[in-house]
Amino acid sequence: MAGKPKLYYFDGRGKMESVRWLLTAAGVEFEEEFLKTREQYEKLLQDGALLFQQVPMVEIDGMKMVQTRAILSYIAGKHNLYGKDLKERALIDMYVGGTDDLMGFIMRFPFLSAEDKEKECAHIIQKATSRYFPAYEKVLKDRGQAFLVGNRLSWADVHLLEAILMVEEKSSDVLSEFPRLQAFKANISSIPAIKKFLEPGSQRKPVPDDKYVETVRKVLWMY
Amino acid sequence: MSEKPKLHYFNGRGRMESIRWLLAPAGVEFEEEFLESREWYEMLLQDGALLFQQVPMVEIDGMKMVQTRAILSYIAGKYNLYGKDLKERAWIDMYVEGVRDLMDLIRVHHKLSPQEQQKNLALIGEKAATRYFPVYEKILKDHKDDFLVGNQLTWADVQLIEAILTVEEKVPTILSEFLLLQAFKARVSSIATIKKFLQPGSQRKPPTDEKAVAFTNRIFNRR
Questions:
Q1: Which of A45, A165, B164, B181 is the most buried (most CB within 10 A)?
Q2: Boundaries of each GST C-terminal domain copy (chain B) (predicted)?
Q3: Chain A touched by B70 (CB under 8 Å)
Q4: Adjacency order of strands within the sheet including A63-66
Q5: Within an 8 Å CB–CB cutoff, is residue B53 touching chain A?
């Protein structure tokens, strides 16, 4: 008799976006409470709802889960997106680690000065095209399958699609040297739940803007 | 007929130390190959041994695993240090990730200038005493168990004791307000395999110093 998971975060991507993606891929409906004021955040703190005083926090199955990685691992495990055994899980964890590092650069991006943004944009594209995308292109090539692990959809595929789309927002032709990733992108995007998520009106959040940055700074006193 | 795991890293703590810590209580013997030069690193790259061109890399069960978290999760799963079900795993993941954030502050310490180091030391002390250790003290208090999750040793306990000892090297009095953590530290340190790891002559590495930082900068061509 479990209710829907409830996500506590800002009204924007940040660290919570990967959770929205994974719940969507798992076919799980979820609710969201957006942090807009310092007072809301302090109330969560006073209620003891944030184990390490941080968001993301997700209420799920009677737990108030924090730490993005822990949340994602739990959802993946619960909804059969974590492979069939320990070794497949190891591969998924490795691949997710890579896309996590890549998306980490992009997540910090909105908080940089205008000057640093230019340099960082070039850095992101360089890392994507010389370190990360070649690795995934090779995995798809060597396996000859539509998915990264175990010939079925896993957390690793969802995470990679999210990363690809994020990097493309910075440079639209970034996949030009990676034919298998192009096919992968088309393939995973066409999965009904994900296709719907990519359409307007879904709970997917837009590219972070100055308003988002301002809200985060205001709520977390991060100046 | 599996061989011993083989760790590829520098002869120092860095990101590999948590892996050494986890293999030790599991009673798993392991070998180490230390990166001694830029050429050695390039050889690993050319052999395609490093999925994202990075170390740590651990050869284990026929895989060349990278991504610290992936490696730790695999070891925990394989050697029964990951709880008995999905929910226990969720708590272990949350506790481990919290400790990891604290350890990251320490890991970068010696890369900072002497001025920045002073500020960082204060930050480490503050975060340990107000954000992280109170959480674990409370868990031990509420559960009245010897361990953090499920009343048996798990990855969460190993990660916590590593963090306690590492913070104490920088802030010796850090546990003065945390009586249950003091008892925890004494108790877990006396487990046979961990006790052995804490003695001279084990594969545990000494604290990182400036020499080690200069060395790794050279290997990775960093300024």
A1: B164
A2: 85-208
A3: yes
A4: A31-34, A6-9, A57-60, A63-66
A5: yes
